[in-house]
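Lab notebook, bench 4. The sequencing result for the construct came back, and we need a structural model before the next group meeting so we can plan mutations. Quick request posted to the team channel:

Model the 3D structure of this chain.
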Amino acid sequence: QVQLVESGGGLVQAGGSLRLSCAASVRAFSINAMGWYRQAPGKQRELVAVITFGGSTNYADSVKGRFTVSRDNAMNTVYLQMNSLKPEDTAVYYCYARYILSDYYGQGTQVTVSS
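Done. Here's the predicted structure in token form:
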């Protein structure tokens, strides 16, 4: 089992920035990939960004060039730096971890971008 604890959500104006953090309850070397998903009202959960233990990244097209995912393996933590935020980025953001062939999600943190 993996517990994921997110922090850093909030309300920001369009064009602003936020940084999300997520700490895992297990050692980073045992987690194949960590990252972030999001779910907007009335929509399905979607991938935002993922980073492997080795540092390879994958981003949704809608956030490329604006968001950056990173991880601190020593701290078992993954981050999401979100710049140039848009109202359509408004969603609940969920931390994600792939651990021993199973997927885990945090409880989510709300990000609201006002126009």
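The chain has a mean pLDDT of 95.
Will bring this to the meeting.
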